[in-house]
Write a structure and sequence with these properties.
heterodimer; A: 445 residues; alpha+beta; 3-stranded antiparallel sheet; 16 helices; 45% helix; B: 159 residues; alpha/beta; 20% strand
């Protein structure tokens, strides 16, 4: 439309309900005189108040409650919470428990990445509106995705008692650990799925990627010897290197009007940063399992993953290989710990911890009293942190789709948002509620 | 395969009328329960149907919208998508397919869709809600419908 006063033209692209993302979100774009002036990734899913729900709860209750934040990545919430509590209480877990927790995380990555690559993101690349429509022409592809997801679920179930919202993670270990035979039973399915994952890397690397290139600021956990799940330091490709519990030293959350999810930014005013598979593969690629390193090298997509967010589907596929190969190693070498959990004593204090959810760094911080009851809680999920990068990228990408018909431009931008695999249900776990009251004397707070 | 009829209970206990399948299953008499394998699945996934043995029937129970609250529906599994006016409560997760899509995907991937669907009309599916009066009143009828379909799909063997 044209502004009668200035003659300036304005075009609006609005997607009221984004599909194939977890939760309820929208996209609003304003283009003025050929320049994208606003890109708003809105999150209107209702706030969920988990940070208040856990106040007064014991650490083990809290671990099960925060798992309820997400049905796709409950393990991430359990892992960040349990490690924060163990750090605070000075708990040293059995090395076998440490491996089981990595295995549990492998299960979650396999289930989540398998779902996203095949059911949510692939239809964009192949021109289908859904996985259901895609299945008519690509039955084997969809079956492969379902098989991968199933193996992830089976691993989570073996360790956590059930595939969704597992219930076995406890401070000091697990409430129950599997017998050797239980994990052995998973081996054939994991081996088969590893082959599917390697095929997934080849397949996604061959998909036509929309052109997009920009320098990305990556943030992820970095560990000197292992691909990051539960340990390491928070690092970036522009020099960040801080302790795993020190997220608040460098980053902060803030509220924006259009979103029920808090945003996050670095306190030094640095560029928006990206978390998740592309960040991890780019920052920690040399610590991938050899099978995954080989798959990445064979794909020829390592450079594209660093600059083109659409190529995150390949990064996610490479991590599928990693998670399955590491799961296989852990299962083959498994020796049950002497006890499922070590004893621990609560003490008053505060501690933070971050782990690598499928979508990236998930930070928790807890304050507890002398009985170990939670008195304050902060949870910073990856999607909250990725919102600024999503908006920043959308603003750039939108410039490249302005000549496309409206529907095609909309589809391309939705595809870009899905490249981040946003989990809106996670991001709306809390809203900073402020009530401003006005009286006849003037505004009062 | 256990030899018992697989009954998939869809829904979430804490989401008002969405709990209908789970609550109705609680009312099933022991002689019915011993002939079935109950699976509380939250949302039915295509994989649940693909995991059934070739030709193995199953029963799916869920709350639905688009019919009067408390109305009990019974249909063949392969007719669910075609039931006029029927809507399924909005999925709490967009990472899972609505029931008709999950059934369609399973069928497209080769599942036979043998079996039945028992639905009950609901009106409130919000987190934290209690089941509505209409659905609470209908639960015994839902349980009877489940038992009836168990008899039909998995008749008791007489010797």
């Amino acid at each position: 439309m044209n502004d009668p006063g200035t003659g300036a033209s304005e075009r609006r692209i609005q997607v009221d309900e984004l599909t194939r993302v977890e939760g309820e979100g929208s996209l609003r774009l304003v283009v003025r005189d050929g320049e994208v002036v606003e890109a708003h990734f809105g999150i209107f899913e209702a706030p969920r108040y988990f940070e208040k729900l856990v106040v007064g709860r014991t650490p083990d209750e809290t671990i099960d409650i925060v798992a309820r934040i997400c049905g796709i990545c409950p393990v991430a919430y359990q892992m960040s919470a349990v490690h924060a509590f163990e750090d605070l209480f000075g708990v040293r877990i059995d090395p076998a428990v440490r491996l089981l927790r990595r295995l549990l995380y492998c299960g979650e990555w396999i289930e989540s990445h398998g779902l996203h690559v095949y059911m949510l993101h692939a239809p964009d690349f192949l021109g289908y509106e859904s996985a259901l429509a895609m299945a008519a022409d690509h039955r084997a592809v969809v079956e492969r995705g379902l098989q991968l997801k199933k193996v992830g679920n089976e691993i989570i179930k073996a360790l956590g008692g059930r595939a969704v919202h597992p219930v076995s993670v406890r401070v000091g270990g697990f409430s129950r650990v599997p017998r050797r035979g239980e994990l052995d039973a998973l081996k054939p399915a994991i081996e088969r799925a590893l082959g599917y994952a390697q095929e997934t890397v080849r397949w996604t690397a061959g998909l036509a990627m929309p052109d997009f290139a920009r320098d990305m600021r990556f943030v992820a956990l970095s560990h000197p010897r292992e691909y990051p799940f539960n340990a390491g330091r928070i690092a970036s490709n522009d020099g960040v290197d801080i302790a795993i519990g020190a997220w608040n030293d460098l980053f902060e959350e803030f509220h924006v009007e259009r979103s029920n999810a808090l945003h996050a930014r670095s306190r030094d005013g640095g560029a928006p940063y990206l978390l998740g598979p592309a960040a991890r593969v780019s920052l920690c690629g040399e610590r991938l399992h050899p099978a995954a390193r080989e798959a990445l090298a064979g794909s020829g997509m390592a450079d594209a993953i660093r600059t083109n967010i659409y190529a995150s589907i390949v990064a996610r596929s490479v991590e599928l290989v990693h998670a399955l190969a590491e799961a296989l190693d852990i299962v083959e070498a498994y020796r049950p710990p002497a006890e499922p959990a070590v004893a621990w004593q609560p003490r008053a204090g505060a501690a933070g911890w971050a782990t690598e959810a499928p979508r990236g760094l998930c930070f928790h911080r807890y304050e507890v009293d002398e009985r170990g009851r939670v008195t304050a809680c902060q949870i910073v999920p990856p999607t909250s942190q990725n919102q600024a990068a999503i908006e920043s990228d959308i603003k750039v990408a939108a410039q490249t789709v302005l000549d496309l018909p409206h529907d095609a431009a909309t589809r391309r931008l939705e595809q870009m948002i899905r490249s981040y695999d946003p989990c809106i249900s996670c991001a709306t776990h809390f809203l900073d509620l402020r009530i401003e009251r006005l009286d006849t004397e003037g505004p009062a707070r | 395969m256990s030899g018992r009829l697989r009954v998939f209970l869809c829904g979430e206990r804490r989401r008002g009328d969405d709990a209908a399948a789970l609550l109705a299953a609680d009312l099933l008499p022991p002689e019915v329960r011993e002939r079935i394998e109950l699976a509380a699945v939250g949302q039915l996934d295509a994989q649940h149907l693909l995991d059934l043995a070739d030709g193995e029937p199953c029963l799916v129970v869920d709350a639905v919208a688009g019919v009067a609250p408390g109305t009990v529906l019974v249909a063949a599994l392969d007719r669910v998508a075609a039931l006029a006016g029927l809507r399924h409560p909005r999925s709490p997760s967009t990472h899972a397919l609505p029931l008709p899509d999950a059934l369609a995907l399973a069928e497209r991937l080769g599942a036979a869709l043998r079996g039945s669907f028992v639905g009950v009309g609901g009106q409130s599916f919000a987190l934290g809600d209690a089941p509505s009066g209409a659905v609470a009143d209908a639960l015994p009828a839902v349980a009877r419908a489940i038992a009836g379909e168990v008899d039909r799909l998995s008749p008791v063997e007489t010797h």
